[in-house]
Amino acid sequence: MADNKTVVILGGSLGGLHVAHALLKKHQQYPNLRNTHFYWNIASVRAIIPGQIPDQKMLRELSEALQPYPSNMYELVIGEAISSDFTAKTVKVQLSNSAADAQTREIVYDHLVLATGARYTNDTPWKANSDYQSLIKLLHETASRVEKADHIIVAGAGATGVEVAGELGYEYGKTKTITLLASGQHVLPGEQESLSTATENELKKLNVTVQKGARVKDVARSADDKYTIQLENGQNLECNLYLPTQGMVPNSDYVDTKHLDPKTKTVLVDEFLHVTGVPGNNVWAVGDIVSKPRAGFMITQKQASSVAKNVELSLLQSKEPVPAKGPPVDILACAVGRGRGVGRMGSIRLPSFGVWLAKGRTLGMQLVDQYISGSIA
Question: Which position has the higher pLDDT, 283 or 2?
């Protein structure tokens, strides 16, 4: 029967919390493995501007999200997955609430959902790379350094880099030097040239300098907190705050490499979001650990809905899974400061005001309550 089955969800961010709510609403009993707080990292690009977003709006306790459900329906385990055995149906967790973090726990599952997301390889707050206290400290330190810096260099001209540069330009474009480094000849690489050009124009309005063909080779930080950035073209740049936005990697170290893309280290999945090559098809993956077709909020939402439905079909109804559905159209929305934005719906350009209204105005902060209450699922 379904009531004696165990579903383990690894990760408590957008994908993991969505799946958790969806299953708990169906009275599915399972333990939940995740960090202590839900982090709305989408707004991290604005949270580094002093005074813009209070901590309590960026981070909410996951226990608050689970509190409405009967305690015998779930278990909140605080820790980090360090290994997994898909044949034995177990995951090993390094517990975060034990002395010196030395204690581990092995959890047996019937179904496993991988929703551990991704991290940046540098010390930045764009993702929750650490525990709650460390993340709060990093947000505060970054905001303090932003406030003090005269020249800020943002490296990486993808969506995150554009949004970081836009926020800095909006707040400080007339009082600080803000530079965005693009490794290629366009910002938002891979997008239509017209969209890249429009983005550069929006940044220019905010007094952000875009330097193209500027791939970072090395970064040196001096004792007096000055940075020297060496580019592959031989040029050296100096600033007193360096904010890299490149170098995102999936949190898949606990997964056997035979289930990973050898180049990207993302988890390989089929059309149902099963992890490929797993006996019994009882391991699923959603979000940035998959990055298929690409990393993105709306894509993660749809994947989470599909996985929750398929786990329910399997455990509650003993039915076959259905192919995962993505968004009906691929949408890119990129805030450029607190007043403008760029984006597209499919191949159709979106007006700046529309992107601001849909995303840039709040960076989706109104959705945090929906994730905590479960109404999002």
Answer: 283
State pLDDT tens for residues 28-85: 566 555 457 899 999 999 999 999 999 999 999 999 999 999 888 888 888 889 999 9
The CATH code of the domain that includes 286 is 3.50.50.60
Domain stops at, among 246, 262, 280: 246
Q: How far is CA 38 from CA 16, 95, 184, 263, in A?
A: 10, 18, 34, 29
346 domain-assigned: no
Q: Looking at the structure, do residues 7 and 116 belong to the same domain, yes or no? A: yes
The neighbour count for residue 41, using CB atoms within 10 Å, is 20
- Rounded to two decimals, the pTM is 0.93
End-to-end CA distance of the chain: 24
Domain range for residue 165?
Answer: 134-246
Provide the pLDDT for residue 33.
52
pLDDT digits over 166-186, tens only?
999 999 999 999 999 999 999
Q: State the Cα–Cα distance between residues 200 and 234, nearest whole angstrom.
A: 24
Torsion angle of C-alpha atoms 178, 183, 187, 189, degrees rounded to 10: -150
Q: Is residue 237 part of a domain?
A: yes
Say whether both 6 and 55 belong to one domain.
yes
Q: What's the number of domains the chain is made of?
A: 2
- Tokens 């949190």 -> residue: 251
Give pLDDT tens digits for 77-108: 888 899 999 999 999 998 876 555 568 889 99
> 7 with 114, same domain?
yes
**CA 30, CA 14: separation in Å to the nearest integer?**
18
Give the helix ranges, DSSP H, for 10-76.
Answer: 14-24, 44-47, 55-58, 62-66
Say which amino acid occupies 189.
P
What is the rounded CA–CA span in Å between residue 28 and residue 4?
9
351: left (phi over 0), alpha (psi -120 to 50) or beta: beta
Whether residue 305 sits in one domain with residue 286: yes
